[in-house]
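Can you please make up a whole protein chain along with its backbone structure tokens because I've never seen that pairing?
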Amino acid sequence: MKTLADIDRLDFEPAAKSQVVDMIRVLLDQTVQDRELLQLKDAQIQAKDAVIRAKDFKIEALTHELAHLRRIRFGVKSETLSPLQRDVFEETLDADLAAIDSEIEQLQDDQPGDTVAKPKRPRAGRQPLPVHLPRIEHRHEPESCTCGQCGKDLVKIGEDVTEQLDVEPAKFFVHRHIRPQYACRACETVTAAPIPPAVIDGGMAAVGLLVWLIINKYQDHLPLYRLEQIAAREGVNLARSTLAEWVGRVGVALKPLAERLKWHLLQGNTLLADETPVSQLEPGTGKTRKAYLWAYRSNDLQPGPRIIVFDYQTGRSGSHAREFLGDWRGHLMVDDYAGYKALFTDTGDAGACIELGCFAHARRKFFDLHQANHSPIALEALNRIAELYAVEAEAKTLTIAERQALRAEKSLPALASLHAWLMATRAKTAPGGATAKALDYSLKRWPALCRYAETGHLPIDNNPTENCIRPIAIGKKKTGYSWVLNGLATVPQRFKPY
């Protein structure tokens, strides 16, 4: 490109040369202005792209959250990857079909003669009735012991036995305790048998009635007003306030049992923990506040009885877990709730609490993502995690040593492959989105997630504990769980009685 000095050496008229120089200067100034304008527009475009990306991430996150909430509120709760579509009217349809079949049979029975052939009814294989149930035998003998054709005596050659299952509704009855009193005329003393022990001294409720009350309220989720109605149908007047008082007294009576169960639970070296909110009624206000049931469960993969202990607390602070566990040390299976973090140390000390990550929670992140937008990344993660659960299904009936060998053969390589895939996928995924969050959840907790595969006795997830608290989550809207579940001697009127 020629400079202004080069233009001075050209054979131009001075006036023309001056015009050319002016024109070049104007073009140069315009070029500079255009370059600055382009740079400004590039910066604006980049800023708008950043805003658009941020909004896209937010839309993706909100879409993911909305799909998750809709599934929880309206959808099937199962987290199977390909659930079969179930007919919401299946039970009604079966009942209608059975009624129609019964009417057809009645119409066929009314036909004169045997001209109409009755079709053979398909029957599913009937399961044998439990052997522990008592049997009441009903013998049906012929009206005559002689043959109706020739009049000779009949000879027994066998018998046909059919069984029907029946139930007797709860019936109320009264125990009468009669204690004769005897006097000694010589020393003028009176002797009588001691009063039989009772759960509630001086109360009219026998042990069986208290058991019926507690099981119906906490296991079958029947509120006290319904139990009051059930008793009223039998002509028994049980006031709701009386039932509530019995519930409270039974809770205090069960406290030693709850403490003993806790002691046995803490003897194990592996625990599973989770918590669920419940409603607590504030006295005098009629309002409720959120309290929590902390669930601690034994490990199914180790020998010993299956124990589940609920600890009722008014909050979700991690101090409640530290107070319950005390000096206990071992492997603790929990979710990613921050309240548990203080229990774990980074020193690797064998005497400290060691965190176990729940693969069900890690899988749930990808399941929700797949349900929201059919993400291929989520589908790949679900398929890889399914391989780990297939190994656990195969090892279900094995011994601890055999399970450890199987995990070393199959689970550890699968975990290494999964981790490499997570790292590679995360490097290609923009931060901030739902996909990145699902990947980060597993990567940040990876040491805790894969720790189970190094042994044969540690569980892969926290599903056993979640299965224990799921009935509570279902029934808490009906009954209002209270301190009775762990037997703590707390003032009963603080809690919702029905």
Remarks:
- The two ends are 93 Å apart (CA to CA).
- The chain has 14 helices and seven strands.
- The beta strands are 181-184, 189-192, 270-281, 288-297, 308-313, 331-334, 354-357.
